[in-house]
Design a protein that fits this description.
By secondary structure, the chain is mainly β. Helices cover 9% and strands 54% of the residues. The protein is built from 1 helix and 5 strands. It is globular, with a radius of gyration of 12 Å. The two termini are 21 Å apart.
Length: 67
């Protein structure tokens, strides 16, 4: 059986009650770090000192341009 979940290696940069902003290492055209906001209701977050891992449905990762 195929899982529709995927892991993204990133850093959680901001957090609200409902969402997190992650930086996946990509940059904007002006060189600033690119952040992607994700709904907490759709993700699981595993934090560590060096890198965080966010698990989410494949459809969400595609919609947000992460894969």
């Amino acid at each position: 059986m195929r899982s529709d979940l995927g892991d993204i290696a990133c850093r959680v940069r901001r957090e609200t009650d409902d969402a997190i902003a992650i930086a996946d290492g990509s940059t904007l055209p002006d060189g600033r770090e690119r952040w992607t906001w994700l709904p907490k209701s759709q993700v699981e977050i595993e934090r560590s000192e060096k890198i965080d891992t966010v698990t989410m449905p494949e459809w969400l990762a595609k919609k947000k341009g992460l894969i």
